[in-house]
Amino acid sequence: FFRYMRQPIKQELSCKWLDEGPLSRPKKSCDRTFSTMHELVTHVTMEHVGGPEQNNHICYWDECPREGKSFKAKYKLVNHIRVHTGEKPFPCPFPGCGKIFARSENLKIHKRRREKPFKCEFEGCDRRFANSSDRKKHMHVHTSDKPYICKVCDKSYTHPSSLRKHMKVN
């Protein structure tokens, strides 16, 4: 059985952090290579990003579009570096989903779409929503309130998507 299992693909991950040498000479890339994402991330965090004493939160990754613009906090720099490394440390816990995310906030948003913690407060309505703003838009369905008005013909709607559909047709 085991001889038929595919071998893991050997990947070589390279650190493209540029040195902070004198401005007069071209900057050199670190170019250390690693066989796992964990090794690369640990290296970048420990060797280049620095510890809590570091107050210069600048990404020096080769060809980074931020061009030396500083982050206000170390964790923001660490999150940003994932753009370069491709690290995605936040997997979806739902069985069979398989999605992974670079930022915990994105995982939280993804989980909310499935969990829908915001229940409609109108008695007898079982609708649930991923966020409070969607629930608020839905609440107009239960009232005579139609706040979304066409500027061309004054027709009004309970939901912005209905107004958008109307605008496409007219």
TrEMBL record:
<keyword id="KW-0862">Zinc</keyword>
<feature type="domain" description="C2H2-type">
    <location>
        <begin position="90"/>
        <end position="112"/>
    </location>
</feature>
<dbReference type="InterPro" id="IPR056436">
    <property type="entry name" value="Znf-C2H2_ZIC1-5/GLI1-3-like"/>
</dbReference>
<dbReference type="InterPro" id="IPR036236">
    <property type="entry name" value="Znf_C2H2_sf"/>
</dbReference>
<protein>
    <submittedName>
        <fullName>Zinc finger protein ZIC 3</fullName>
    </submittedName>
</protein>
<dbReference type="Pfam" id="PF23561">
    <property type="entry name" value="zf-C2H2_15"/>
</dbReference>
<keyword id="KW-0863">Zinc-finger</keyword>
<comment type="similarity">
    <text>Belongs to the GLI C2H2-type zinc-finger protein family.</text>
</comment>
<dbReference type="InterPro" id="IPR013087">
    <property type="entry name" value="Znf_C2H2_type"/>
</dbReference>
<feature type="domain" description="C2H2-type">
    <location>
        <begin position="62"/>
        <end position="89"/>
    </location>
</feature>
<keyword id="KW-0539">Nucleus</keyword>
<feature type="domain" description="C2H2-type">
    <location>
        <begin position="118"/>
        <end position="147"/>
    </location>
</feature>
<keyword id="KW-0479">Metal-binding</keyword>
<dbReference type="GO" id="GO:0005634">
    <property type="term" value="C:nucleus"/>
</dbReference>
<dbReference type="InterPro" id="IPR041643">
    <property type="entry name" value="Znf_ZIC"/>
</dbReference>
<feature type="domain" description="C2H2-type">
    <location>
        <begin position="148"/>
        <end position="170"/>
    </location>
</feature>
<dbReference type="Pfam" id="PF00096">
    <property type="entry name" value="zf-C2H2"/>
</dbReference>
<dbReference type="Pfam" id="PF18366">
    <property type="entry name" value="zf_ZIC"/>
</dbReference>
<dbReference type="InterPro" id="IPR043359">
    <property type="entry name" value="GLI-like"/>
</dbReference>
<dbReference type="GO" id="GO:0008270">
    <property type="term" value="F:zinc ion binding"/>
</dbReference>
<keyword id="KW-0238">DNA-binding</keyword>
<keyword id="KW-0677">Repeat</keyword>
<dbReference type="GO" id="GO:0000981">
    <property type="term" value="F:DNA-binding transcription factor activity, RNA polymerase II-specific"/>
</dbReference>
<keyword id="KW-0217">Developmental protein</keyword>
<dbReference type="GO" id="GO:0000978">
    <property type="term" value="F:RNA polymerase II cis-regulatory region sequence-specific DNA binding"/>
</dbReference>
